[in-house]
Amino acid sequence: MAEHVVTLQANEEFITVGQLLKEVGAIQTGGQAKWFLREHPVVVDGTPEDRRGRKLSAGTTVTVPGSGVVTVTAAPHVS
């Protein structure tokens, strides 16, 4: 199973499930998120998730059918 990393931008505290699905290429548009979540078992930190607006912060692990395991990370701090 493929592993992906989605890195939050410096000004972001979280990304939503819908945004993550677009980022990994599971869907083309945000409008497809609702359908995708109804048809495919997405798992967030071991718990099934069907809400496209669920907030995912750094350290969250998401399993996306067809895309594998996705880890959300924080942007590196620039000094």
From TrEMBL:
Record InterPro entries: RNA-bd_S4-rel_YaaA, S4_RNA-bd_sf
Domain of life: Bacteria
Alphabetical UniProt keywords: RNA-binding
GO MF terms held by the record: RNA binding
Gene3D superfamilies associated with the record: RNA-binding S4 domain
Keyword RNA-binding: yes
The keyword Calcium belongs to this UniProt entry's keyword annotation: no
NCBIfam families (alphabetical): YaaA_near_RecF
Protein name (Swiss-Prot/TrEMBL): YaaA
UniProt source species: Schleiferilactobacillus shenzhenensis LY-73
Gene: yaaA
